[in-house]
Amino acid sequence: MHQSTGKKNKILIYLLFLFILSTTSAKFINDQKKLSLSISKINITGLSEKKNSEILNNLNNLLYKSIFVISEDEIRKILEKHNIIQEFNIKKNYPSTLNIEIKPTKFIARVSNNSQYLVGANGKLIEDKSNNELLPYIFGEFNSHDFLSFKKNIEKSMFSFSNLKELSFFPSGRWDILTDKEILIKLPQKHIVASLNLSKRLINDDNFKDYKFIDLRIKNHLVAK
């Protein structure tokens, strides 16, 4: 009786050992398979051939890495170094290809002291010596946060960037705009959207059609001439 029980225990231990061994082996083989599926091709679309090629060169260090191991954050860090990019979409085409679709930013202004630098809708500066678009000029020392904040206010207002000829940023955080009708508008630091809308209504009012200067810097105080 004791011998029969001992044999049963040995068989159970043996079967358990085989189960653990087979499970471990299967996991090892699966892990090895994943590691063996390395990236051999990267496709970039959405920009000029020259710019696509430049970005592709920056991504070459991803080649031959496992397509399972590579993270989107790692790719994102490389792509975000290129100011021309507004949005991008990364797709893994198994077993070995990365497809990256890029949406370029739209140029909405030009830097006054160096016209070959353009300002994108993403708030970043992009060098483009060949661009001849008619865009408003920006004066003053501004950063992306300043610009994007003001851009949002423009988009919420009755104005659009196509109505603007010049924008001036001041150290106090205040903006002036010169419209395409040569009307200078001095804006306050706060309540920008309301001030822009008031200015637009004045411009469209026949009683103010000859006015070329609107000053709204002081709260509840309007100067027009």
The helix/strand order is HEHHEEEEEEHEEEHEE
* Helix segment tally: 5
| Main sheet overview | 9 strands, mixed
The average pLDDT value, as a whole number, equals 84
Could you give me the name of the CATH homologous superfamily of the largest domain? Answer: Cell division protein FtsQ/DivIB
CATH class term of the largest domain: Alpha Beta
Q: What's the CATH architecture of the largest domain?
A: 3-Layer(aba) Sandwich
Order of strands, widest sheet: 6-5-4-7-8-9-10-11-12
Note poorly predicted spans: 24-29, 31-35
Shape: elongated
Strand content bin: 15-25%
The total strand number stands at: 12
- Give the C-alpha Rg: 31 Å
Number of domains: 2
CATH fold topology of the largest domain = Rossmann fold
- Separation, N- and C-terminal Cα atoms: 114 Å
**From the helix content, strand content and strand pairing, which structural class follows?**
alpha/beta
How would you sum up this structure in a few lines?
By secondary structure, the protein is an alpha/beta fold.
Describe this structure in words.
The chain is an alpha/beta fold and 225 residues long. It folds into 2 domains: 41-104, membrane protein fhac (Ubiquitin-like (UB roll), Roll), CATH 3.10.20.310; 107-224, Rossmann fold (3-Layer(aba) Sandwich). It has 5 helices and 12 strands. It has a 9-stranded mixed beta sheet with strand order 6-5-4-7-8-9-10-11-12, with no helix packed on it. It is elongated. The termini are far apart.
